[in-house]
Amino acid sequence: MAHLALLAVAIIYGLNYSIAKDVMPGHITPLTFILVRAIGATSLFWLTARLFSWERIKRKDLPRLALCGMFGVACNQMLFFEGLNLTTPINAAVMMTVNPILVLVLSAIILKESLRPGRIFGIVLGIMGALFLITRGGQVTDILDSDKSWGNVLVLLNALSYGVYLVLVKPLMKKYKAITVIRWVFLFGLFMVLPFGGPHFGDIEWGAMPVDIWWKVGFVVICTTYLAYLLNVFALKTVSSTTVSFYIYLQPLFAALTAIVMGKDEITLILCLAALLLFTGVYFVSFYKR
């Protein structure tokens, strides 16, 4: 079940690069969009907890939850959306491939998780597969373009922030239910985002938004934020932080498969080879024990 949840998250994030890019900055500025996400998702998390699984937390865990809110919601989302606003979806996807490496190292240092050779080999395969797919046709030749370089740096910092979050939140998953952890993480994150996105929240012209932009905002709030974070913390109860982060490599693959289904792309040898590398990497990271 955990791996099915992570597959669903990979599909959602694979779609999110282009969907969120269509909303910013013409309709909502990046930081204000993060506030919209935080308000919507926090409300959904607390409502879900109240309806299905209300659980109290210990006061001593509040500082760790606050750190998770800072790295997993505030810094992570603000850095990513600001970076995506300045660079391209392809470049952002390339920069995110560093995340599983960061999580592997941080997990070994903080959580004392073993650096198994099979897991390291799987991550190398994942990097190869993701970059092989993303760079087909030389689409990232502008990754060092001065006009986009600051955006690429911000996305890289976002990857580091999300890596820290995945490692920090893991111990909390052993003590509490997933919905309990994530509702507090987002509550802290909401208060941290408010000073940055609040000043321009009133500038959003909701009535002037086209219907398709409304749908895209809804997708980012409900799917990319509410469902994806909930599924990730659910998966963290049974698999390692490294495994959760590795599924980032599947995002460009599912984005390509979605384009094929919609008739905007076609199956190619590059896609098949990338899929083989990616799913072999999943096996070594998640299932290979010897």
In words, what does this structure look like?
By secondary structure, the chain is mainly α. The protein has one domain. 75% of the residues lie in helices and 0% in strands. The chain has twelve helices and no strands. Helix 2 packs antiparallel against helix 3 (62-86) and helix 6 runs antiparallel to helix 12. The model has no long low-confidence stretch (mean pLDDT 81).
Mean pLDDT: 81
The number of helical runs is 12
What percent of residues are in strands? Answer: under 5%
Count the strands?
0
> What is the H-and-E element order?
HHHHHHHHHHHH
How is the biggest beta sheet arranged?
Answer: none
Content-based structural category: mainly alpha
Number of structural domains: 1
N- to C-terminal separation? 23 Å
Q: Taking Cα atoms only, what radius of gyration do you get, to the nearest Å?
A: 18 Å
- Tertiary shape: globular
**What is the percent of helical residues?**
over 70%
Summarize the topology.
Blueprint: H1 2-23, H2 30-52, H3 62-86, H4 89-95, H5 99-111, H6 117-134, H7 146-173, H8 178-197, H9 211-236, H10 241-246, H11 251-261, H12 269-286
Describe what is shown at a glance.
With about 290 residues, this protein is mainly α. Helix content is about 75%, strand content about 0%. It has twelve helices and no strands.
